[in-house]
Amino acid sequence: MPARNLLTPRPTPSVLxxxxxxxxxxxxxxxxxxxARIEVKPGFFxxxxxxxxxxxxxxxxxxxxERYRALxxxxxxxxxxxxxxxxxxxxGRWSFAALKAGARHVIGIEGRPHLVDYSIATMQEYGISPxxxxxxxxxxxxxxxxxxxxxxxxxFCFGFFYHTANHMLLLSKIGRLNPQHLILDTDIYGSxxxxxxxxxxxxxxxxxxxxxxxxxxxxxxxxxxxxxxxxETMLTSFGWTFSxxxxxxxxxxxxxxxxxxxxxxxxxxxxxxxxxxxxSLVA
Length: 283
What we know:
Layout: H1 15-29, H2 61-71, E1 83-87, H3 93-100, E2 105-110, H4 113-125, E3 133-137, H5 140-143, E4 154-158, H6 167-177, E5 181-187, E6 197-203, E7 220-226, H7 228-237, E8 241-244, H8 259-263, E9 266-272
Parallel strand pairs: 1-2, 1-4, 2-3, 4-5
Antiparallel strand pairs: 5-9, 6-7, 8-9
């Protein structure tokens, strides 16, 4: 479907007020807060409300804006004037944010073609030059092999790492590209101190799930959620050093839509390498 023919519903001017009201009502029903204590902090995506309607996945203003602060604003020096690869680019929200933060060029890989169409349409609507971005529809594990080694400065892996069971293969493919930095945001199995990956089956029909079905079950994909220790061990094995974003030290008072970060079962980090990896570690 060509991007120009998209009939993506556009939010009304009151979309933020309605979202804030729904957040207040949900919190009140759960006894978590009173209306006087709820604060919706304005942020980046409030300027670009199309992203509140191009996906049903976590399109909550509070969540998107705080994630922008953690993943983009906190890492602007790793994004500005850099070439970015956005793995699992979804509706283009983070590719767009990177370009607005000064990225030279962004490549987005997304498995669902309709989300690629939405990404292109949004870029066009918000006046981003086509020379600055490219979106590819396909499996990340296939498409990443087509990206030339040394062409990527910073790699985004937001909300993708726990939608595969092939973590080491993915890190191997990332290693071949030899980016300077990897910005990673992922669910972890937060209740475990073991160095382990916890497997489960998820429905591929869900917009935020893997697109790769199992040979014996075309409706589901086998995915793995690593413990913190497993995540760190895998990164270290490929020569990455890393530092976590401290979600609890940035003054968040309204955790609506952010319970996974608040509870520690989702983490954000920046991984870096000062030299090329050993060739035996990459595909």
